[in-house]
Specification:
Two copies of one chain form a homodimer. By secondary structure, chain A is α/β, with parallel strands linked by helices. Chain A is 38% helix and 18% strand.
Chain lengths: 521, 521
């Protein structure tokens, strides 16, 4: 058995059963091994940012890691942004980065680069497997780290991959269960909540299941504390039958208001709330002066367990949670806007849909109105690097083939990794992509004003850098060119009909929604 | 004057007059400054790999650096592959990477990352400008490094950018001329060449001008030495009226043959020839056993000067060089193949065209047949990271608006950075993109066989990873969707007519050439 086969078999043994790939010459033995080892599904992406984004989406839904197969330093560079997003989500993945043969690295060749340097900046776990004897052990450790939510990157020299004297595959290593929160922490938070002062639970740092949302809502109903999800939740169960949770606004100005008047903020997995960016006249910390911060749990802690124990301590197991209820909105008419898109989505979203949100400004009303939609999961852009959505949707769809996936993408975001559309077509995934065509980096128009640059009013050169028009992008043509059934909606009723149609059938779809830019103030 | 304005003015003062951008919030003051400072042309790319590739192409043609404007670590990650390609070409650029405000970096926020780590892996010069007093000095030093062919990356914290107490702009620093080769080196090579033993001059490491090609050819004609360009020349003048130079083949097997029987190889800017990749049964070093390596010049040396002095030493100034001559090939008919594409290109290429080659297997016959074309410059993929071509063509066209730019792109390569088509349309650049649609990673099919993996025959899973079909990509639809006039050629005569038409008019064009994959052996 050569190194590549031992590696692939080890990954399969360790529960890593999907590999998103964009291989090159140095990875050919790994690719060959896919026909010698059973149990590894391989999915090709036409750019490495597609590959890493798909691994993120897969892990968020499957609750276990996928692998990526990348070609030397530049291949990892291309994957970097979506690895960064996954890292911020604390979502694990195993990156296999092919490298030159060990004896070839001494030479100056076009593709050699500081691979360890670049992967090290965004990986928790890095190893270059320099010997076929160590490869399967290394791979099992990488898988273990990924199961623990880490970015694990295994650098695979070509000669180690093709070597015939590889050690046999390894079995699944121990995977630690989520940490349990200490009892005195739960007791302290119980006592705090019992005081009845103005308090908010800020929840995040990982998945919020339907069960967790209901537990959180019980606590809120019983104690009077508000319960709020962080601005960009990794994965949160929402809609009909879930516990109603607030969401912390993105804009610092609005976040201050949202947190105003509180005496206490209890961090439940979430980190201290901080403004996404710095601005000349806005402070970074969002916690109001005089408001105390407390920590119930940190990322990686067992959320459901700690909430159940807190509920036991509070004695509120029988309190009814405040659930979101289904409300079918009326069919929107007139001009198409982000709000009418939100109405249509709320109307027609199938139960158990996975919503992947890379929609920037246009997505804001959708989050609000889908509270009244059937139960669904919402995945957010956790690392701020746009181009996450369509790739992420691929992974989500592969993890849950029975569920509809809806990807919301800004036109600027969609262009970053538009190649992902082809993989959706090739794999015939049940993904509908809604692209918001407002012909702007709309968020940057808003941010330009917020930074106060040049009095908040861009001159002609600056305006051109925020503009996606001239020429306008035609996503219907682009999607069609990648094999996706696509349509354009210019009115609210056109979108409503097209969206309902897409939700009623299975398979790849793209709808270009011709919405106006969002204006603030 | 704020930091951003002082920075932009310093760049302009230092001869950095084009900035390829994809900004975010932290770069808004830089963007604003584009309307306060004259002389900086700003060009938007819809992905950072477009931006860095364009900066590379600009510098190769303008012989001076451009700037890029990138958004924090993920923005640089997206730019990484084409920065890598530029670094391997020894082409300088100034990367401005916006960062959070200095006081904001202490917080965990979605976009913070190890920016210094990632930029450091591919930059010669890195500085984080932590004070408005130092910013213009830092910028001038970055520009100086870039003029010297270095990747210079200036990290720009938002508060340094918006600070109103910036130091005034700096003037152009000293730019060192190319190094002169020492006289005793020239004397030694003269003596070697005078021996008349089987010798090859391997030329590369930077631009090979028409003048240099003629000087090299004189030396070859006079001494009997062969003259050969490295496999992937940064920029080489070719076609009618240039000195005829061989090219070292990409495939190691063919490169051994090419270098067989030599007693001496003289490196003229080029590095020792090494196989691009390692393979199980192929040695890395391409220099035949017993063949001696000598060095006339190294990258960064003044090539024309050293060749003129060598000619003086040899006393062959009056020897006639062997020039490429124009030969108009017959119009091809029948099936469209890379060879018939090559015939058509050779027939219709306008004089002074800039050819950017990201065409992988399909480009091979084009290089050969364009020796008989009018004079042109050929730019190669120097770092092996595909997706270089269309972005590079943008920069070349902006550097030389009066010249036609022809980009050759494999379908796999074109998909990597297809967003670049939009910038070509927006800027109405005189670029024709020929995409070779063979629905394969054709090079990987060849490489799979060469690595000997699984007996050289991919199984079904492996074959799927090398295949771009199912569904086939439709580049006409994609290009049309980005505002580019596009057509498809399925026969040799269709391509011949479409290509002649594209060459006869100005402005953006794309031709999808439906060629079969190249087979070896």
């Amino acid at each position: 058995m050569n190194g590549a086969a031992s590696l692939v078999q080890t990954l399969v043994n360790c529960g890593v059963e999907v590999c998103f790939t964009n291989p090159g010459t140095s990875e050919m033995h790994f690719v060959a091994a896919l026909d010698d080892v059973e149990g590894m599904r391989c999915v090709l992406g036409l750019f490495e940012g597609v590959v890493s984004g798909a691994a993120d989406g897969y892990a968020r839904i499957a609750r276990k890691p996928a692998a990526t197969l990348l070609h030397l330093g530049p291949g990892f560079g291309n994957a970097f942004a979506n690895v960064h997003n996954a890292k911020k989500a604390r979502v694990g993945m195993v990156n296999i980065v092919g490298d030159h043969a060990t004896y070839h690295l001494q030479y100056e060749t076009p593709l050699n680069s500081d691979i360890e340097g670049i992967v090290g900046t965004v990986s928790h776990w890095v190893r270059s497997s320099e010997s076929p004897a160590a490869l399967s052990t290394d791979a099992a450790q990488a898988a273990q780290a990924a199961h623990h939510g880490q970015i694990a990157t295994l650098i695979l020299p070509a000669d180690v991959s093709w070597s015939e004297d590889a050690a046999p595959p390894m079995a699944m290593p121990d995977i630690a269960p989520p940490r349990r929160v200490q009892s005195d922490t739960i007791e302290a938070i119980k006592n705090l909540l019992a005081r009845g002062e103005p308090t908010l639970l800020l929840v995040g740092g990982g998945e919020i299941t339907q069960k967790a949302s209901l537990l959180l809502s019980k606590i809120g109903e019983h104690t009077g504390a508000r319960v709020c999800v962080e601005t960009f939740p990794v994965r949160v169960a929402r809609g009909e039958g879930t516990g109603q949770l607030e969401r912390l606004p993105y804009l610092a100005e609005m976040a201050y208001q949202h947190l105003g008047g509180l005496n206490h903020i209890v961090l439940v997995g979430a980190l201290e709330p901080i403004s996404f960016f710095a601005y000349p006249h806005i402070q970074s910390k969002l916690v109001p002066e005089g408001c105390e911060l407390h920590t119930l749990s940190t990322p990686g802690d067992d959320l459901e367990d700690c909430l159940e124990r807190l509920i036991d301590a509070l004695g509120c197991a029988d309190v009814a949670p405040r659930c979101s209820v289904r409300a079918t909105l009326e069919a929107p008419t007139g001009d198409l806007t982000p709000l009418t898109v939100a109405q249509s989505i709320s109307r027609s979203l199938p139960s158990q849909t996975i919503v992947v949100d890379d929609g920037a400004t246009s997505s804001l009303p959708i989050y609000a109105l889908t509270e009244a939609a059937p139960a669904h999961d919402w995945l957010s852009l956790t690392g701020g690097a746009i181009g996450f959505g369509i790739p992420n949707a691929i992974g989500a769809a592969i993890a849950a083939p029975e569920r509809k996936v809806l990807c919301l993408a800004g036109d600027g975001s969609a262009m970053y990794t538009n190649q992902a559309l082809w993989t959706i077509a090739r794999e015939q995934l049940d993904v509908t992509v809604v692209v918001f065509s407002n012909h702007k980096y709309n968020i940057l128009e808003i941010e330009f004003a917020r930074t106060g640059a040049r009095g908040g009013k861009p001159g002609p050169n600056a305006a051109a850098m925020l503009d996606l028009g001239q020429p306008n992008l035609d996503f219907v043509s682009m999607a069609t060119g990648m094999g996706i059934q696509a349509s354009r909606a210019a009115t609210a009723s056109e979108f409503d009909a097209q969206f309902a149609d897409a939700m009623a059938q299975r398979g790849p779809r793209l709808i270009e929604a011709m919405v106006p830019p969002v204006k603030l103030g």
